[in-house]
Amino acid sequence: MSQTNKISQKNAKYAVAVQSSDNNQFYFFNNENDYIAHLMKGGKKGEVGEMMKTLQNTVGQAHPFFPHYVYKTVPYENKIVFDHEPINEQAAKENPLMYKGQFKIKKEQFGDSQSLDELFTKSMINQQEIEVDVDFIETWIGNTKLEDDEETLIQEAAKTARWFIAPEELPPPMKIKVATEDDTTILDYIELNISDIDKKKRVSVLDNSRQTSCPILVQIVLNQDTVRKNVEDGEVKGVVIVAKVLLNISIKDGQKNNVQAKRHFFNYVLNTLKDKEIKIVELNSGNEFIKVNNHNTQNGISIEAVEHKVKFFDALLKIEKYFNFKFDFPKELDPYDLEKVNILHAIVEGTSLHGTFESYPLICNSPSALGGLIKSFEGTEGLKFMIGGMLNQPLEVFGQSVSNIKQENRFDNVIIENIEKIKQKHSCMDEGDAVRINLIPGTDNKLETIYTIDN
User: 176, 259, 180, 273: which is closest to 219 by C-alpha?
Assistant: First the structure.
């Protein structure tokens, strides 16, 4: 019996191979795929790897600029295409790979832009890509154009891919603070970016609309002709813009119910009413960047009214911090909401609420307790009196709820209304009967109420 290690046949209808056979078994393969499948099934991955390596080298060396460049196979969509790859950095430097072509910007990409310059400016400001239609792309290596570049990655992409011009990178935001002339900070750590440029009118707009951490929108509209150099000791230290500047400060959309945002806004309004000049200070250098005399603020509102609003929102912020929640501030206030806020603020501050009263009703269902009250008040012009208990329901305000509130009322001077009538009811009262009595002012109608959280 003879042994044959390998027989191969080329240029025939069938590829015939006998491999490591000692029993005259023959295998017929219609194509290379069947042969590779046979090798893989037999666990001969190494042989398959060598075949693939040989095939890759053969394909790569078919590059018209070999040995400086080779073809590299890459997947694209649902097929394999070729890409150009320099063999090393020196080859890429000596014969750089370049692409030249022609494209058209789609008409709808212009929008309201009147020129290419305006289109690219808006693309940068909005960080939006510009879609284009590619007419053709040429592949160049060094000074040589590749005439046959079909079925390469770049040519396939030119036919089927969507192409865009990437926007120019925005400069880093300018970190500023808004302050009064006497350096009282109104808004701190604001990040300004360019949001619009009108080159014809020579107007630029800066704002912090991209700053997600700040609920306030700061917008500066400035005329580029008003930039003046700041010179100290003969040296330019920066620029200051002093005229034709409009400063707009408002609450961002989606933050209208934010207590912190409202406090910031009314604090700004208050300072503009008190101090007509506002300055913008660049935080990194500490230099004044802009001085503003023209503010967009609320007309017809008094300083006293705005001060009241600022104090009110300060109180809400303290309540939020104390109870570790955030209010959902409504568009319109209910009078009862203000009363609830006063209660919570008193709890936070550890203070009491002071007021007056006309009557205070009590229900007594114990004959002995009622008898004790009558004995205490009978024959007097009034007594100091204190009564306390838990609120029946949680206190709910601006989307938040606080439970376990203890209330203590302290009267300076009270008497029992119609005490003789109460004595008659007491004389025939059984245990469990409910008798209503009213406490009314004696010589003083003052009332002090203390609220605490009963833990």
Answer: 176
Residue 32 identity (one-letter amino acid): E
Residue 91 included in any domain: yes
Q: Is residue 298 part of a domain?
A: yes
- Distance CA(166)–CA(76), nearest Å, equals 22
Pairing assessment for the beta strands 278-282 and 383-390 based on DSSP bridges:
unpaired
pTM for the structure as a whole: 0.68
What SS3 state is found at 44? Answer: coil
Kindly give the confidence (pLDDT) of every residue in the chain, 455 residues in length, as a single tens digit, with 9 standing for 90 and above.
444 455 555 555 545 454 555 555 666 677 777 888 888 888 888 887 888 888 888 888 999 999 999 999 999 999 999 999 999 999 999 999 999 999 999 888 888 787 888 888 888 888 889 999 999 999 999 999 999 999 999 999 999 999 999 998 888 899 999 998 888 899 999 999 988 888 778 888 999 999 999 999 999 888 776 655 554 555 545 555 555 678 889 999 999 999 999 999 999 999 888 866 788 899 988 888 787 766 666 667 889 999 999 999 999 999 999 999 999 999 999 889 999 999 999 999 999 999 999 999 999 999 999 999 999 998 888 899 999 999 999 999 999 999 999 999 999 999 999 999 999 999 898 888 999 999 999 999 999 999 999 87
- The amino acid sitting at 117 is D
Domain that holds residue 18: 4-60
In a domain, 42, yes or no: yes
Number of domains present in the structure of the chain: 4
Which of 265, 253, 257 is closest to 331 using CA atoms? 257
Residues 255 and 301 in one domain: yes
Structure tokens at 184: 């009282």
* Distance from C-alpha of 178 to C-alpha of 190, rounded to nearest angstrom: 8
Question: What is d(CA 204, CA 195) in angstroms, rounded to the nearest whole number?
Answer: 8
Residues 128 and 235 in one domain: no
**How buried is residue 226: exposed, middle or buried, by Cβ count under 10 Å (0-12/13-18/19+)?**
middle
CB 390 within 8 A of CB 403: no
